[in-house]
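User: Can you help me understand a structure? I only have the sequence.
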Amino acid sequence: MTARAIPLLLSRRLPFFYGWVVLGCVCCAGFSRQGGAVSTLTIFVEPMTRHFGWSRTAIAGAVSLGGVLAAVLAPPLGRFLDRQGARVVLCCAVLLTGLADTALSLTASLLGFYLLFCIARMNFAGPFDLGIYGAVNNWFVARRTLTTAIATVAQMVGLVLLPLIAAFGIAHGGWRTGWLAVGAAVLAVGFIPIWLLLVGTPEDIGLLPDRRTALPVETAAPVADPAFTRAEALRTRAFWLVSLFTLFAYPVQAGVSLHQAPFLVERGLSPEVAATVVSTFSFASGIGSLAFGFFPRTAPVRFALALAALLQLAGTLTMLSIHAPPRAYLAAVLFGMGIGGLLTMLPIVWADYYGRRSFGAVRGLALTGQVLAQAVGPVLSGVLRDRTGSYDLSLECFAGLSAVAILAAVAARPPSVGVGT
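Assistant: Let's start by predicting it. Here is the structure, written out as tokens:
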């Protein structure tokens, strides 16, 4: 039986568009993606640094190195995605992440930790991002905003549950048990539905984006959508402005996310309360993702990006005044809503501006800057904390970066083919 046999059979018998099955598979992948998330790792920072005597900068370096590896991988992987679809990309990402998380329970040295977590982080920053949003953007055009929001919410569910799973494992068996629990959850949720049911594009089984109407494969035609090549995209001003937005917004996202639990403990909150604040942040990210999913399609998407950065800015500034749980939960809600908007709207901007045909190639190239920016944030925060004894200076830097990101987003008008705008 071929990889398309089950999806082809189901697409003919289901009373609804097969794209919703694909979206379900993508949601499972989004949950599993969080095995390499900084919000999951943050639960392990305090117990692992205490056990091994590592610095915060040392453990944050694994996040950054994984991001660098993803930056190198992203451009060729984007072209592979355009040719082969998301199924192989996401199956490999889930399998490698689950196995790496499980093996982290055996960590005996900093080198071993780097080797394993870098695999999970590389998958998080590169293959998962390209595969998840590539599949959604191929199957949905008219419903792109809503379906991207749903896919992002599923990732937030993973961000809510996996830190709690990790904390539960740590509480009942130590940090090694925590990693075992995370790895098992990643594999259990993600692999089988993607392997059996995911199809890269609707045309692969004779359908069109957004439509249940079955057509012969040889006559299926794409829905009207921008059709930039990667070379054409690089000649537009919008590509560089959206990339600039990414370079300023993502150090904030990754830097705050990784260090939020140890920051809260240093501010006097218990580890248990800090874990619930992290989960509140993740829950708020899901709410933000869903809320941004209803952003009107007739409104400029660049304003939604600016709003996401504004919420990041508000959350970061609020963190500077945390001394008790209520302010911590407020900061988590503000920052989480901003991250939810960022994760939902940025893939939509790339798809709306440059289309489905070369989404992987365009997004893969832009993703290099994104993951490098994510790599800078945790290390910057860790270095400043180790040198000053607190996270205050890093939060002030992140607030400044968020302000610049707002300006870049507002300036990023949609491109026009052939006119360099």
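Now, to help you interpret it: The mean pLDDT is 87. Residues 5-411 form a domain with the Growth Hormone; Chain: A; fold (CATH 1.20.1250.20). Let me know which part you'd like to focus on.
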